[in-house]
Design goal:
Length: 463
């Protein structure tokens, strides 16, 4: 049984706060409610304490404090986790948002990033140097959470997952020790954190390999939802065979009242959002098969890579209601396409959507045991996302997501990208790591035998 941080003697909390460079926030503080808010407005957890860390020493002190007082500990980076696993009720939240730095090294195109950074801070710094690190699809996502879960994004086909570009990390372990992990130091931990989530410690810095990316060709194409089966069948072949310089995720969606033309508003579509990082002179020929399908809307052109990364940030501000479900897929057969037509035609709210992210190309050439990401042979990471600003619609979007996923799960590869999962139970965690789960358990048992870091998609240590 964990203790409640709310029941700690105030003098103990005061002494802890005096150790930190950052500050400690408790439920009686005026900023508490603001501090406990996260990206998903559906999450309503009430931690007992926040340790607002500003350096690795603060993290060490916070881990030791939480362990010594038998507190439930959650680690928060960017606060984007759909299930709200950056918070916990009654326990201690170790908040990394004050640990921010972006330090590029142009001699080898690497970059060292703080555990509290969000991706737009990395993107903007690297863009000035003509570089980018493969990340996700929304630039306000935290570096830490996205990386530790794997990292699927616009550059996946060309340069792999985010974890495939992780060279080194510095982290605080459950016993309070501070270690560096890379291909030659603490290699078991280095393997585990490349997809194993926050189970093994608190990462205070990441060092990534960056790649030459500056201006790209990108943007969306749309077709009426009635054509989703046709477009999806074409896409399933096209995206596997086309140059890895071109990426595009396919979606079922509603066009919200935003920057899109008014005649598209509130209609349902099958869409593909493209990103091309190759020779601009070759783009028109390569992209012609897309235009031959006569999209009802095509807005694809040259733009800075960070502009694509942040294209949907404005539509998806913090505080909306979110519910997620996910699966990996090996193929998009007729039965799968029929379900996408059914559920894409019944999207419950304007911001709710389904995405299929391709995993072909560079990401597929990493061995299935080289990192915890077990589904290197999967062709797509699928996600069903219920989104709405109104809490009254929480059940509506949740029910649609669950029904969508349950209808398609029989055709799936079995597991899911853990960053797209809610709290769905241990069987789902095991299925998502597949043959790598037992090795993760061994490493977890060695470094966190008491499961101090359990507020995550948890790897349970041996008893």
């Amino acid at each position: 049984m964990k203790n409640s941080a709310k029941n700690l003697n105030p003098n103990i909390i005061k002494a802890f706060a005096s150790q930190l460079k950052g500050n400690v926030i408790s439920p009686s503080d005026a900023t508490y409610d603001q501090t406990r808010s996260v990206y998903n407005g559906m999450i309503d957890k009430h931690p007992g304490l926040f340790a607002m860390c500003e350096n690795a020493e603060d993290v060490i002190d916070s881990v030791n404090f939480g362990r010594e007082h038998n507190l439930l500990i959650a680690i928060r980076g960017g606060g984007h986790n759909g299930a709200g696993l950056g918070l916990c009720n009654d326990g201690l939240v170790i908040d990394l948002s004050g640990i921010k730095f972006v330090k590029p090294n142009t001699s080898n195109n690497t970059v060292k990033v703080g555990g509290g950074n969000i991706w737009n801070e990395v993107d903007s710094t690297l863009h000035e140097l003509g570089l980018a690190v493969p990340s996700g699809m929304v630039s306000s996502t935290g570096v830490g959470g996205l990386t530790l879960g794997g990292g699927v994004g616009y550059l996946t086909r060309k340069y792999g997952l985010t974890i495939d570009n992780l060279l080194e990390a510095e982290m605080v372990l459950a016993d309070g020790s501070f270690v560096t992990v890379n291909a030659s130091e603490n290699t078991d931990l280095f393997w585990a954190i490349r997809g194993g989530g926050g189970n093994f410690g608190v990462v205070t810095s990441f060092t990534f390999q960056a790649h030459p990316v500056k201006m790209i060709m990108g943007g969306p194409t749309l077709w009426p939802i009635e054509r989703v089966e046709e477009i999806m069948a074409w896409y399933d072949t096209f995206i596997r065979e086309v140059s890895e310089d071109l990426n595009g995720f396919i979606a079922t969606m509603v066009i919200p009242e935003s920057s899109f033309p008014e005649h598209l508003h509130n209609q349902k579509f099958c869409g593909i959002v493209w990103c091309y990082v190759g020779d601009p002179d070759k783009f028109d020929e390569l992209f012609q098969p897309v235009l031959d399908l006569e999209p009802i809307f095509a807005h694809v052109g040259e733009m800075p890579f960070p502009a694509l990364q942040s294209m949907f940030d404005g539509l998806l501000p913090p505080g909306l209601q979110w519910y997620w479900r996910a699966d990996f897929f090996n193929e998009l057969g007729p039965e799968v396409r029929a379900e996408h037509l059914k559920f894409g035609s019944s999207i419950p709210t304007p911001l709710s959507q389904m995405h299929l992210y391709p995993l072909s190309g560079a990401a597929s050439r990493v061995g299935a045991e080289d990192t915890p990401w077990a589904y290197r042979d999967a062709k797509y990471a699928g996600v069903y996302i219920g989104v709405d600003p109104d809490p009254k619609n929480a059940a509506k979007i949740t029910d649609w997501c669950k029904a969508y996923q349950e209808a398609l799960h029989p055709y799936s590869a079995g597991g899911a990208y853990t960053n797209f999962m809610m709290e769905e139970g241990q069987d789902r965690v095991k299925a998502s790591y597949k043959h790598n789960y037992d090795r993760l358990v061994e490493i977890k048992s060695a470094y966190d035998p008491d499961n101090l870091f359990r507020v995550n998609q948890n790897i349970i240590p041996k008893a």
